[in-house]
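During the first year of the project, the team set up a workflow for recording each protein of interest as an amino acid sequence followed immediately by a discrete structure-token representation. This format lets reviewers and collaborators read both layers of information side by side without switching files. As required by the reporting guidelines, we include two representative entries from the current panel. The first entry is reproduced here exactly as it appears in our internal archive.
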Amino acid sequence: MAPYPTPRDAALALLNGGTGLSRKAGSFLGQTAVDPAPLSVAQLGWLAALLERASLPPLADGAGG
């Protein structure tokens, strides 16, 4: 599968994936899906970890928000 072009696309994929997300992760992903503000380095790292844990493709290079 192709990398996600934006953090929003990745967040929506995780939310729609039905994986066992914590309330904190779900809140973070929901905010990522609706807020166009760029993500911090730490937030990008968390998003990358959630994608990897769910066996989903990574963010595309330069898709930092």
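The second entry, processed by the same pipeline in the following quarter, appears below.
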Amino acid sequence: MADRIFINKKHRETIDFWSGEKNILDFKSIENIEKFTLAASLGIENPLPVSKPRDGYIRLSSIQTYNKALLSSILLGKAQNDEIDKCADEEKCLEEAEKCVESGFQILKDKLNEARGDEELLCKRLMAEIELLYETKVKPGLEVSE
């Protein structure tokens, strides 16, 4: 098993740019695992193989348990009942998260371009997407259990 989570090297350049003077989405002050998780959440519907060259991004030993659980939920959330044991493998979960990040950073880059670099507009659009996801995916499940 690798000792790191990997990303495409071009994403490292994007992250460094966003963490620089522009400080897009406060990337300058948040941890790498938070950047990784954000990208993974955006790419969860369309995971792609990590393109080469790959770059070690986060040491596994530095990831807190709650973040590992969150990243593991990506693969486990897609598992059928008979696949749960197979999908509970940490290495496979992290590989799936890397695939989600591969598409997620491109999605985030596209969203920023669509907002013409306007971070406030980007944030408003992201919040609107979150609200829509809540209304369509989460709230109906809560109403059924009441």
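For the second entry, the following points were noted during internal review. The mean pLDDT is 89. Helices lie at 9-18, 32-42, 65-76, 84-87, 90-114, 119-145. Both points are flagged for discussion at the upcoming steering committee meeting.
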